[in-house]
Amino acid sequence: MTTPDNEASWDALAGAYQEHVGWPDDELAWGWRTPPEAELGLVSDVVQGATTLVLGCGGGQDLVALARLGAGALTGLDVSSSQLEHARRRLDGAGVAADLVHADAADLDGLDADSFDLVVSVQALNYVDPLDRLFAGVRRVLSPGGTLAFSVMHPAEAATEDAPPWPWTGSYFGEQRDWVWDGLTEDELSFRSWFRSPAAWFTAVTDAGLVVERLLEPAPVPDRRWIERGWLDEDGYAKLDRVPATICLRARRPPGPS
Ligand SMILES: C[S@@+](CC[C@H](N)C(=O)[O-])C[C@H]1O[C@@H](n2cnc3c(N)ncnc32)[C@H](O)[C@@H]1O
After folding, report:
1. Of all protein residues, whose CA lies closest to atom 15 belonging to ligand 1?
2. Beta carbon of 193 within 6 Å of any ligand 1 atom
3. CATH classification of 6-252 is 3.40.1350.10, yes or no?
């Protein structure tokens, strides 16, 4: 496998990804078989009118979903310009206004300090490293008292096979993994991901000076749309009755100046 270049691979994958496995935008979906926002309530008490930044906004689905939940001014940031082109088309089609920023989530220097009430990320931070730069940037751009809410893939989901008896093929503690996205494009597109434990996410967020309010490993909900959308096959769906799919975390920047 060639050394992964996440930006180049997402640029090359974007078209097929949006066509064949695009994320839902009818609701804020945190992960496959993970309770949606209407059940989880990770941002529902803070989203109304909130100036909101989405890290790794992809094709814009999460921005559209947040607009429907009543978010205020929206900004989407992504490392892939192709994904951002899809986001622009989706936002225009949905009549949702948002600024789109081409940047790495680990380098938020181009955004103003204290400028967002809410920072959201859905299944994107597994691609971001290093965490100290990511969360130092998030703390800087959050307004005092502002909220960070994100979901990532659980390392137990990443380290187990999708076929019964769902054996472990990697270490729970492996964190960094290079892998190939099979089947969506003819090219072999490789990615570098970091599958961190709930404790590692908690520690990184806390070390940045944010206060963790909720850390969740939600039990699966029955939702066969994840099979229909092409994210899971029957075996992968059944695995999630045994293995957590998603980590969700919510934290707050303490009130008061930095
Ligand atoms: C799985 S998608 C998440 C977006 C949406 N929730 C979805 O599932 O389609 C991951 C997104 O993160 C973006 N991404 C990967 N690495 C990134 C980085 N270092 N900084 C910002 N965005 C990144 C990718 O380009 C991609 O659009």
Report:
1. 127
2. no
3. no
